[in-house]
Design brief:
With about 180 residues, the chain is of the alpha+beta class. The chain has a domain of about 80 residues: SH3 type barrels. Helices cover about 20% and strands about 25% of the residues. The chain has a 4-stranded antiparallel sheet, with no helix packed on it. The N and C termini lie far apart (about 105 Å).
């Protein structure tokens, strides 16, 4: 009799085994049926073939170089004195130099130039300034006129007029505020 009561209780407990997530459990069990994963085979590995670099004799494409001179021009003729000792202001680009004033001593007019390193230089007509072989031609109270000598890609030299105007640093400082 005892065994009979235990069996009935076990059946009753088994019947109550359905819970609130039975539909979810059924879905998970059924979701994977009929699906079969397929993995693509790996591609065939091609053996490495070394490529011999044979362009050592070709010119560097990133290095500046001159064009071959034409039959008409040719890079000859006029050019600046490349053996001349450089003056201090020739190490700065003309755009970075500022004319800050003028000065006259012994009937000679000088211009005062402020370099990017905040050094102050005194220059006169005939002095050189700028990286393009600039020669000062005239100095007035408002500007310096100079001639630069520039080389083109074919090796020909040409002169280009340029100027540097007086900068009023008191107004320039007020404009920057």
């Amino acid at each position: 009799m005892r065994w009979l009561i235990i069996a009935v209780m076990a059946l009753g407990t088994a019947a109550c085994g359905s819970g609130p997530h039975d539909d979810l459990d059924k879905f998970v069990r059924d979701a994977g049926q009929g699906m079969r994963g397929k993995v693509e085979p790996l591609p065939e590995v091609k053996p490495y073939e070394p490529f011999p670099y044979e362009a050592f004799n070709l010119p560097d494409p990133f290095a500046p170089r001159k064009l071959k001179p034409s039959t008409a021009g040719g890079g000859g003729g006029f050019q600046p004195d490349l053996n001349r000792r450089k003056e201090p202001l020739e190490s700065f680009e003309l755009e970075k130099l500022k004319m800050v004033g003028t000065l006259e001593q012994n009937h000679v007019t000088y211009a005062l130039i402020k370099a990017p390193d905040n050094s102050l230089y005194r220059v006169k007509v005939g002095d050189h300034m700028g990286v393009n072989f600039g020669v000062i031609k005239s100095i007035s109270e408002q500007e310096i006129k100079l001639t630069e000598t520039i080389e083109d890609s074919a090796g020909d030299w040409s002169e280009k007029p340029n100027s540097l105007t007086l900068i009023d640093e008191s107004n320039a400082g007020q404009q920057k505020k």
